Structures are given as structure tokens and as C-alpha cells.
Amino acid sequence: MYFLHVLKSIFRPANIGTIIFFLLNAAFMVMYLSNGEPEGMLIVGVVYIFSVILALSPLGEWVVAFFAGARKLKRKDMKDKITPIVEKVYKAAYEKSGRALGRVIILKVMHDPEPNAYAIGRRTICVTEGLLDLSDEMIEGIIAHELGHLAMHHTVIQLMIGGGNFFITGFILIFKIIHYIKGFWAALDLFRKGGEDIVGLIFNLIDILTAVLVWLWTRFCMLFLCWSGRANEYEADKYAAEIGYGYNLAAALDLIGNGKPNNSFLKALYASHPATHDRIAKLQELGVPYSRYA
Fold first, then answer.
1. DSSP annotation of 34
2. What is the per-residue pLDDT across 210-223, written as a single tens digit (0 to 9) for each?
3. CA–CA separation, 10 vs 20, rounded Å?
4. pLDDT number for residue 193
5. Average pLDDT of the chain to the nearest whole number
6. Quick one: pLDDT at residue 280?
7. CB 33 within 8 A of CB 172
8. How far is the C-alpha of 253 from the C-alpha of 262, rounded, in Å?
9. Which letter does DSSP use for residue 165 in this model?
10. What residues form DSSP beta bridges with 117?
């Protein structure tokens, strides 16, 4: 039942961009890294699937949190501040989502003075030190938003993409680029010394150009991922409102969010979050009685 719920959560309109990104990038990378050879495609495909499975495991979740700078919450005063808040909001979220949310939330801290929080994988929430300086009410709103990401499995999809599209392909691409550059300089050196490896030089130039085109392709695919990311932020905001913390979230966003609109067209396209004013406006449309000027 849980697996079916995850699949249902993944194949939603808000995740269309993510699904397009995953399929396009996965297919292209498997073809590119295998050079189109059937045996190579099979090997790369198996490695790709294995990397996705690894990313979706508890180990993958731990690795992502570790490289994000999240660590175990050790200080008593920090625990006394954040733990009751998380437990309070979690209770309201569990009443709405039940097993989809899970029974255990792992709480970690990031030593960053900026107030923020992040959901990772299936059950991890990372809070920054700066978040603890906010009022309890504002923290409740932000935690409700992050629990929304977990309940709707937005973060599971992120792990899947991270495992399949970045870990293995990123490593192999870097290796290939280094190999291409070495080959190019070797062919150029031979050509300068009077060798006849002009064909090798041309092919290495083509290889380097191909690597650049792959990077551009990945940037193109990222447009779909960012599109879904913005839709997921609205969904998590709505979730926070539905469990009774919409006002708290709006107040927190108004305090810590960046109110500047994305004037640059490219910045708007590649933004992972909607503009703060747009998010607050959506919450107000949902009936949240928040006003900065009240």
C-alpha cells in the first residue's frame, strides 16, 4: 500500500516537469555513456538503476543530509527549543496523512545563521541554527511546510533524481571530460611534432564539443525540474494551511523570504522556489487571514 501511495504521489500534475526531466536525462545519459552500444546500454542501465535504489535507501538519505552539512542535534537547549515544536506539528500532519508521513522523523541541524529548513528523503528534516531564533509560531509554519514535502513524497523524487542523474552520471561525465582533454593535448602534441594524427585531433575536438552539448542538454532538462520544484513548493504551502499553520507560514515567509521578484527571465525559469509574494498571495487565496499591515 505504501509503495502504491508513493507511485500515486509521484505521478501527479505538479510532478510532470520532474518526470520529463528524469526520463529525458536518463535516456540521453544511458545512450551517451554507452556510446549507443547494446551491451554498454545494458551495463549503464543496470548501474543507473542500482544508483537510484541506493539513493532511495536510508544510506542514500544519510549521504544527502551529510553532504548538505546536516548533523545530529546534540545541544540540549536546541533540542528543548525545536523538538516540542516538531512533535506538535507532526501530530497535526499525521492526523491528515497517516502512514504516508511515516511514524519517525529524523531531526538534524545545519550550522547556518540564515533561518531555513529542508526536508530530505522519506523522514529527515534539517533545520538551521538561524531558524531557532524565530518565534515558535513561525517555526511551526515552516516545519508544517517541510512535513508537507515528506507527506507528498516530493523529497523521495529528489533522491531518485539525485541518485540516478547526478551521482553516477556526474562522476562518469567528469571522467570522460578529463579523458577527452588528455586525448586532445596528446593529439595536439603529436601534431606539433610532425605526426600525422590530425584525425585524432579532430575527433578529440568533437568529443570535447559533445561534452559541452551534454552540459547544455542537462541545463535544458533542468528547466522541467525547476518547474516542478516551484509547483511542489505551492503544494507544501497548501498542506501547511490545511493542517492549520498557514498563517504561521505566511508570517515566516514575510520575515525571512526574499520579496524581490525574479526580474531576469532566466532567473525566473531556473528558480527552485516561487517568489515570496506569490506564495503568500496563494495562501491568502486559500483563506489564510494573514496581513502584514493588520
1. T
2. 667 666 766 666 67
3. 12
4. 61
5. 78
6. 95
7. yes
8. 16
9. I
10. 127
